[in-house]
Amino acid sequence: MHPIFLKPKFRVMNNYELMVIFTPVLSEEEYKAAQKKYTDLVTEAGGQIVHSNPWGLKSLAYPIQKKTTGIYWVLEYTAPSSFNEPFKVQLLRDEQVLRHMVTKLDKYAVVYNDRKKNGINYKNEKAEVE
Predict the structure, then answer these.
(1) Average model confidence (pLDDT) for the chain?
(2) CATH number for the 20-108 domain, one of 3.50.50.60, 3.30.70.60, 3.40.50.1240, 3.40.50.2300?
(3) Calpha distance 47→2 (Å, rounded)
């Protein structure tokens, strides 16, 4: 195999969004520690945190592990694609996590999220994507 394929000089960073539902029995300190744990995993792998949005305690649509509420957290980040599988394994092993979902964002979703965070009315204007 050609050496250029073995050690790439650059890694392609993709945009992702993680939604996690934590168990509702967490204290505020445990919730913050869990958020820090996962943001640290992203940054240690060479990724970058774009936006962290803690939604707080919400009712679940159906019971999960006999719980009817959960603490929601949405994290938008960039990371190499090879990072996601080990990241999902960590989420599955964590007993504090009831459910999680990682979504790869395309360029339109990135622009949409950015405009939404900045309070720009995105319904009446066409998004300009580079």
Answers:
(1) 85
(2) 3.30.70.60
(3) 27
Q: Where are the domains of the chain?
A: 20-108
Residue 81's alpha-carbon distances to 23, 68, 78, 108, 129, in angstroms, are 28, 33, 9, 19, 22
In whole angstroms, what is the distance from residue 115 CA to residue 89 CA? 32
CB-CB contact of 40 with 33 (8 Å): no
SS (HEC) of the chain: CCHHHHCCCCCCEEEEEEEEEECCCCCHHHHHHHHHHHHHHHHHCCCEEEEEEEEEEEEEEEEECCEEEEEEEEEEEEEEHHHHHHHHHHHHHCCCEEEEEEEEECHHHHHHHHHHHCCCCCCCCCCCCC
pLDDT digits (tens, 9 = 90+) for 71-107: 999 999 999 888 889 999 999 999 999 999 999 988 8
Query: Does residue 23 have a pLDDT over 80?
Result: yes
Query: Side chain identity at 99, as an amino acid letter?
Result: R
